[in-house]
Write a structure and sequence with these properties.
By secondary structure, the protein is of the alpha+beta class. Helices cover 48% and strands 19% of the residues. Residues 17-141 form the RDD domain.
Length: 182
């Protein structure tokens, strides 16, 4: 009797997964977009300081508002319509179970990148070696970054995959592709 406790998930044509070039392009587009958003968020505070409306340091309010803007851009916007970087590179993020990832999944994906243990360098290194071009964050959270027009070509069982490298043992769910998939 086969163990199906992890369930099943979609898989795509290998050419549909976003590679290093497209992912770097997304970062090079979205980081300046967020920096511009930060400057535009700070300008009203500067004006209110100049006109004497604000007499104390407003930086904590700025940072709260800016963090909210970053979250709105990189979580709900990315999962639904995509960021500017995703639009420019014609990419989308999908759940391995089908459809859009949840807000919780996307928030965890963002937090894993900010607080670790994964970072841009490790993600890109892993991405270059992964057959489905998933970053470690994507592997653990069950998400794929694929071409906007990509459709799943099949569904397979999820099995726990284990890797041992550099003194680390990593284990995460991985879809087993059907031998008959295109």
């Amino acid at each position: 009797m086969a163990d199906n406790s992890l369930g099943d998930a979609d898989f795509y044509d290998l050419e549909a997964y976003a590679g290093i070039g497209k992912r770097l392009s997304v970062v090079l587009i979205d980081v300046p977009m967020l920096l511009v958003a930060g400057v535009l968020t700070w300008l009203p505070f500067v004006a209110l300081i100049q006109y004497g409306v604000i007499r104390t340091d407003p930086s904590r309010y700025f940072w709260l508002l800016f963090l909210l803007i970053i979250w709105l851009y990189l979580v709900p916007m990315k999962r639904s319509v995509g960021t500017v970087g995703y639009w420019a590179t014609r990419l989308k993020i999908v759940s391995a179970k089908g459809g859009q990832p949840s807000l919780l999944t996307m928030t965890c994906r963002l937090l894993l990148w900010i607080f670790g243990p994964f970072n841009l360098a490790l993600d890109l290194l892993w991405l270059g070696a992964d057959t489905e071009r998933q970053t470690l964050r994507d592997c653990y959270l069950g998400t794929y970054v694929v071409d906007r027009s990509a459709k799943p070509i099949g569904r397979g069982l999820l099995h726990l995959t284990r890797y041992n490298a550099c003194g680390l043992t990593l284990a995460y769910p991985r879809v087993v592709r059907s031998r008959f998939a295109a």
